[in-house]
Specification:
heterodimer; A: 134 residues; mainly alpha; 2 strands; B: Fumarate Reductase Cytochrome B subunit; two-stranded antiparallel sheet
């Protein structure tokens, strides 16, 4: 090991550099735009004012907590009525509320989740009618 | 005292991050300038430290061995704990790096009836391994923000890590393990008087900083969800060298980022360099072959020697007259 000491050290440093710069050459510097979310569904088309259950920035960050709370309240406590901050009411339901408006799940929920690597297991059970499971 | 200073510095970082979040220019500095600066300092500092270590001379083997050296054929030797060749050293290094072999030898000493009694103490080894392992998993999982499309094994890792599906989003087990490890390592420093006595600012600061990173990360995942879409867009924009200042990202993320950048920039100049240093430890990476090879100190000053043969040549006649035995006639 003595003689090739510098060889070993150079090898180690090169491996280290390759590992820490991995993201730079993995994507080969290509530009990947954030996913385009499609709101192009019949129900949303018919809405006069395009609003989600709560305001958009809240939904974007908090929808998983909201769905989790909905599930617990609906299934465990039987409260199935949700009153939004602005007074409108919704049924606390995944396929019955969210997927009514966002019926293009593949182009909406999934696109976003694939981008950040979230893999909700909900739809293993909450089957959306007419959707073919791949 | 050292602990107090570290707490003050970490709190200072939190305030700094909150201040940065409030100002647009400062956000620009943090999200556009700082990432590259910090990365260059990290890489440059790391290489500098390694090269500096590599230059220090190690003329001899330092056989701090834990097994029988290779010797006569009928004596059983331990090729890994006392290696004599490349593969033995390789095995010893692998054990050290992946299993923390040296920590496993940790002992504790108690004075019983006025005599020191030694016993084995594996807790430091266990929590050390737990901490480092989960830290590695967490770093690998973060690749989901730096690759698009996400590398499949990173997604698989996240799935395995969250397989208990506690809560939505699922709680990662490595996060729990990391916090458990950190808590032990921290309490050990605070509670054991001897360890507290030798603990320096850098010891507490590195623990608290990593703890801060973990806590802000957990906050963003489970309590104050951050807009991951925006965060990934930011991370990807660094990679293609056209960074963008994110809009409406929570303060928690700024704190997280400030901690991470501090850690990275400070890393090469701190004890955390043991990440690279472990590969350079001469007691671990040198084969104990002093009996097979002659290691000559390269900076020995040339010494004029007068060997016995020369001596005899010079004085043979006189030796014979004095009836002294000679080797050559």
């Amino acid at each position: 090991m003595k003689k090739n000491k510098w060889g070993m050290i150079a090898l180690g440093l090169v491996i280290f550099l390759i590992m820490v710069t991995f993201p730079f050459w993995y994507g080969k510097g290509s530009k990947t735009p954030p996913p385009v979310l499609s709101l192009d569904t019949p129900v949303i088309h018919e809405m006069k004012e395009k609003r989600c259950v709560e305001d958009t920035s809240f939904m974007r960050a908090n929808h998983m907590k909201m769905l989790n709370a909905w599930r617990d309240e609906a299934v465990r406590e039987g409260h199935r009525q949700y009153t939004a901050k602005d007074g409108r009411t919704y049924e606390k339901s995944l396929s019955g509320t969210c997927i009514q408006c966002h019926s293009n799940r593949e182009q909406f929920c999934t696109r976003c989740h694939d981008y950040v690597g979230a893999k909700p297991t909900c739809f293993n059970c909450h089957v959306v009618p007419g959707e073919v499971n791949k | 005292m050292n602990l107090l200073i570290s707490i003050i510095v970490v709190s200072g970082l939190v305030l700094l991050a909150a201040g940065i979040a409030a100002s647009h220019t400062a956000s620009y500095a943090l999200t556009v300038v700082a990432p590259y600066l910090v990365f260059v300092v990290f890489l440059g500092g790391f290489i500098y430290r390694i090269v500096k270590w590599a230059k220090s001379p190690v003329p001899f083997r330092i056989p701090t061995t834990c097994g029988q050296e290779k010797t006569l054929p009928w004596i059983k030797n331990n090729p890994v704990e006392n290696p004599s060749g490349f593969w033995g050293v390789f095995g010893r290094m692998a054990q050290e790096i992946f299993l923390f072999r040296s920590l496993f030898r940790n002992t504790e000493v108690k004075i019983i009836d006025g005599r020191p009694i030694y016993g084995s103490a594996k807790w430091l080894w266990f929590f050390g391994l737990l901490f480092h392992g989960s830290l590695l998993i967490i770093i690998l999982r973060h690749l989901r923000f730096f690759t698009e499309p996400i590398i499949p094994c990173v997604n698989a890792l996240s799935a395995v890590d969250g397989f208990l599906e506690i809560g939505v989003p699922a709680l990662y087990l490595s996060d729990v393990a990391l916090l458990a490890g950190l808590t032990f390592l921290f309490l050990r420093r605070v509670i054991i008087p001897q360890v507290r006595y030798i603990s320096l600012f850098t010891d507490y600061f590195s623990l608290l900083l990593i703890c801060g990173i973990a806590v802000t990360g957990l906050l963003m995942r489970h309590f104050f969800p951050a807009d991951l879409n925006e965060i990934k867009t930011l991370a990807m924009s660094w990679i293609i060298f056209s960074p963008v200042v994110p809009q409406n990202i929570s303060v928690v993320f700024y704190i997280h980022l400030c901690f991470v950048f501090t850690l990275m920039a400070w890393f090469p100049f701190s004890k955390l360099m043991h990440m690279g240093g472990v590969f350079m430890s001469p007691t671990r990476n040198l084969a104990n072959n002093s009996r097979m090879l002659r290691h000559i100190n390269p900076w020995n000053a040339p010494v004029k020697v007068h060997t016995y043969e020369e001596y005899e040549d010079e004085f043979r006649d006189k030796m014979k007259t004095a009836c002294l035995p000679v080797e050559k006639e």
